[in-house]
Amino acid sequence: MRAVLLVGLNFVRMQWLTVVIMALYLLSIASIFAFNEQRQEVSFFFQSHAFYVLFLGSMLAVPAIQTERKSRRIVAVLSKGIYRWQYLAGLWLGCSMITSLFSLMLGVIALGLCRAGHYRSDGLWPMTLALLMCCSMAVAVAVFYSIVLHPLLAVAGTTITLVLPYAVRVIDWRPVAGLFPVWWFSEATNAFHFNGAPEAQGIIFSALLMTPCYLAMAALAFSKKDVTTSPE
Fold first, then answer.
1. CA–CA separation, 78 and 62 (whole Å)
2. Contact criterion met (CB below 8 Å) for 178 and 206
């Protein structure tokens, strides 16, 4: 676990500029919303920026391994006795740390806006935790596709996997929500107006189950990947 934590912390350190820019963005946009504290405006703030955080997590994870291979840093790390699965878990942990920070920032800012407007914030923290878990699951999906596909295709594969139910609606097929927690979260968020979050627990449980599945598939694929050569 120490090796996983070190890889994760090192990834966060390398992404410090992204963390600073996103944090400043959230704080600055929150100051704008503070001048209009109506309930629907705060709901829009939480809904829209939840998807930004989900997108950011995926975009951080997709190019990570490709970049590490190009710089040959991955070879240096693995030569220190760190197992491949530990390296992957560290990348996932690092991305999840970043998305968790932004998810919590989003929850705290939304709570502050609710308090400033003097209205209830029922369901905010369950939905924030659901966002945090969905981000971790989205990162796991992105890590898997980044191993088996080119980064551009990995972005497409990650997006399709996360929101597949939207695509298959045209054929009148409604997949089991528990298999697609990010889509489930999207549907629940669109209906969320600080009036409770009855679906949050199911989303959290679903994301908790799906995340290790994608990480296991990523570890299996990575165990057969040649990382000694730099990709084109």
1. 19
2. yes
Amino acid found at 133: M
Q: Which of 94-98, 142-146, 168-172 has the lowest mean pLDDT?
A: 168-172
Summarised one tens digit per residue, pLDDT across range 106-144 is: 999 988 888 887 778 888 899 999 999 999 999 999 999
Instruction: Indicate whether 86 belongs to any domain.
Output: yes
- How many domains does one find in the chain? 1
Q: How far is CA 52 from CA 47, 48, 166, 223, in A?
A: 9, 7, 18, 32
Query: Does any domain span residue 116?
Result: yes
